[in-house]
Amino acid sequence: MRVLFAAAELAPVIRVGGLAEAAGGLVSKLREMGVDVDVVLPDYGGIELANEKKESITVPGWAGPMWARTGSHATAGKLTLLGSRQLEKPSPYVDQSGEAWPDNDLRFMQFSAAIAAHRDATEPDVVHLNDYHSAAAIAMGVEPAPTVLTIHTLGYQGVAPARWLKQIERGAEDFAWYGQINPLAGAINQADRVIAVSPNYSQEILREESGMGMHNLLAAKGDNLVGILNGIDAYDWNPATDRSIAEPFDADSVEKRDASRSLLLDIAGWEGKDAIVGVVTRLVDQKGIDLLLGTVPYLSGLPARIFILGSGLERLADPLHAAVATSPDRVYFHDGYDLDLAHRIFAGSDMYAMPSRFEPCGLAQMQAMRYGSVPVVTPVGGLVDTVLDADDSRKGTGFVARGLSEAGLVDALHRACRARKNRQRWAGIQSRGMRHDWSWEAPADRHLQLYREIAR
């Protein structure tokens, strides 16, 4: 089977958030299973390919000129990069201040037009689109193909001025959205299958309060809307072989985590045995940075400290810097993105906080559990599917806030700190999370089943 897989990012080539990790993990596992996956990404510039072949792409005049670079990436294998002068940027979506590039509507409509041209030229059995960046491709080009759309988040829909409706070649009415164009809505309307990235999220988005205006549209898909939990790359996220951490370990040698814990203490300039709560996040409103900051006055009483790695909006980074200035013994903040440090936080933190206001799937909580860091999460999306509260079940793997609030998060942290005092109980919580299979094996198999259902 040949699958054209289009996304705006894919780890390890282009990595911004969960989309990259999910796309990279799924593609890798599908290829292991023998699926011929043609990966198509935007050419943001600076991506080196071996045996590269570059040629122009025939796209509508408004989108051109565009090109395709095809070759082999050192770690991701065969790629096709679709490019234009506008798509080339130092970061995929935002400028240095965290604000969206002003021409993102043009950039990702161009990308969609190029995907459609590539699809028409290669005639895959199935097209798999991801989020709004590639969504308009379903209604462009010569001939539609069986199409799967994955919604990694409804938080970004690509809404843009209505003038873009003129560039939709089939079913422009499906893309019309309150006097504007909504690429994600159009693709939901036209896709043969729509995937939400966790079972719980697939139900949440049918409700008005969490459907972000699309609950009725999604409800109309009926059984063609499915929830499939993402996995994590079991090779990249393996504490037994991880060269980024202070000392490798596994579920049978958890005591070796102490070396990574000591490293975090050294980085932050801390001493003592107070719980270290790790956070690796994008600084966007979705991630509940305000809820996290609300816990700071209570940290000394838990007792706990928060070690944060994050990048994104300056207006969210500024209060984190302020928290460090006022509570340096309780808060550490590394402003930026550092993959090695992320691995070290998972390996060395006692707990991992994920106070998301909504979280379609979430990968960090699975990565944390894989590394023995006990997750403390809010009761939303995929966090509900993956973290079982240890106070509610003997099979618990973490702590789930009893409400989406500062008080709920503080209570969950308090319960986690209390559990940590019981070494035997804490070891059991860690062990269950570490031994669970969080890999892409089962999710990839479910994707392949969907492809077979609709393939031409």
Q: Could you give the distance between the termini?
A: 10 Å
CATH superfamily of the largest domain: Glycogen Phosphorylase B
- CATH class of the largest domain reads Alpha Beta
Give the number of helices.
14
CATH architecture classification name of the largest domain: 3-Layer(aba) Sandwich
Largest sheet report = 9 strands, mixed
The order of strands across the largest sheet is 3-4-5-2-1-6-7-11-12
What integer value in Å does the Rg equal? 22 Å
Unreliably modeled segments: none
Q: Mean of residue pLDDT? A: 97
Quaternary class: single chain
* Structural domain count: 2
Q: Indicate the overall shape.
A: globular
The SS-based structural class is alpha/beta
CATH fold naming of the largest domain: Rossmann fold
The counted number of beta strands is 18
- Helix amount: 25-40%
Strand proportion, as a percent range, falls in 15-25%
Please specify the SSE layout and strand pairing.
Layout: E1 2-6, H1 18-32, E2 36-42, E3 50-57, E4 66-73, E5 77-83, H2 104-122, E6 126-130, E7 147-151, E8 160-161, E9 176-177, E10 180-181, H3 183-190, E11 193-196, H4 199-204, H5 215-219, E12 225-227, H6 257-268, E13 275-283, H7 289-293, E14 304-312, H8 314-326, E15 331-335, H9 339-348, E16 351-354, H10 364-370, E17 374-377, H11 381-386, E18 399-400, H12 406-420, H13 423-435, H14 441-454
Parallel strand pairs: 1-2, 1-6, 2-5, 6-7, 7-11, 11-12, 13-14, 13-16, 14-15, 16-17, 17-18
Antiparallel strand pairs: 3-4, 4-5, 8-10, 9-10
